[in-house]
């Protein structure tokens, strides 16, 4: 026998190896390491999914308003097209017309010119293309109605006078003429909103006053005076309408004559133009200017073209105001309920049932709260308010319909369980020794709660408020029943007495996203706006939450216990 054979250790029995392996696995399980890896892996997967979603929204949202070049495509046996390439894909086409099955590229062009062609987008197959070009003078025109217009400038005309005919001359004078046209449009808008709106409001007040006098059998002299005031207001209204007609004629004198890619000409009144730019002749700084201009319009203007273009300022205003009203309502009620359950109610079956009900309410679908808000707030409470205070306006409801107030109260009920649970946990975390010290100094229970318990529970209360804001600001289903609409021409706050109108319907960013994504007549044009509006909604919710988190951190610093 060799020396190597003598020095080789004896082979471990199979039973012993299995026992050691089993013991090692048992030890790992006892320390929880497999569960630790499983939990950390699930967390990493969830964070990766959230990061991917946020990245998609950021890329699509910030890229929506960047101007694209205009591509002119001449097709075989079909009119030429001019537009932005918004999508391209490879598609397998079946065998047809003597052509075998093949994979071919097709591109979607945003052609615009809806008033001429009847569609905004068109697919183009590579086999249909004869020639492609990017015309130097191709002009992209964004309008207040009918969407975009793509073409080449032919002339700039003011009344009977031709201001410019060459493309370079037209572009040189276009900015100044467009600025004057925009000033005229804004002047007309101010006249219509301020003066005509004030007269119309006064006429409505006089109508209700006369109706009240007739219903109550008022003095004939008062009724005659009301009729005379109404007649005077009608004369003022007619005069303002004539001024508006004159402004329309004056503002419509300057037009931009454009040639569509199919050869048709179209006169575009500059008063209806939002912006116009040579898409293929812009350098980087000019594109950045168009990009920032579109963002400013998006944040400060009102929607147009079925919400697929324009701005979302009314939706921003409605979202923020509704969230703030909801927070101001839900926090006091949630804190009072949590105080009673934790500090005053005696432990027993009834209190346990109440806590179970509160926890279960947090899991009720939000649409159920919307149905409750519609039935109780709108139909019962709102109708009673109308019959008691606004009987002169019936059958037109004032509070007996969806509005900003009822939507805020409905979301306050929706988020109330979150605030109650968070507040109750924060109150329970206050040491009993602090309560006993307060009682020992002669303070009453109410004084102890107000001066000792609540100040030190404020960070936890703010946590509940943060959770309520995060959930309430993004809810859509209840709002569809209690006040959010597709278009609200008036804000809840304006210059007309009583200046605050909580009964009015409102726009909401979440509902705006739903409307763009599922109810828009031009879904392809609305798709980029979905990402941008979603990005804006996330930004508003994050801003509100960061503000509440900063307040909570300040409260923690103020009421932090001294460790020494």
Notes on the structure:
The chain has 16 helices and 13 strands. The strands form 3 sheets. Strands 6, 7, 8, 9, 10 and 11 form a 6-stranded antiparallel beta sheet that branches. The chain has a 5-stranded antiparallel beta sheet with strand order 4-3-2-1-5, with no helix packed on it. Strands 12-13 form a two-stranded antiparallel sheet. The longest helix has 50 residues, at 167-216. 60% of the residues lie in helices and 14% in strands. By secondary structure, the chain is α+β, with helices and mostly antiparallel strands. Residues 1-6 have low confidence and may be disordered. It starts with a helix and ends in a 5-residue tail after the last helix. The protein folds into 3 domains: 71-134; 156-286; 333-559, MetI-like (MetI-like fold).
Cα radius of gyration in angstroms: 34 Å
Mean pLDDT comes to 85
Give the terminus-to-terminus CA distance: 77 Å
Q: What would you call the shape? A: flat
User: What is the helix content?
Assistant: 55-70%
The succession of helices and strands, N to C, reads HHHEEEHEEEEEHHEEEHEEHHHHHHHHH
* Count of strand segments: 13
Low-confidence stretches: 1-6
Compact summary:
Strands 6, 7, 8, 9, 10 and 11 form a six-stranded antiparallel β-sheet that branches. The chain is 60% helix and 14% strand.
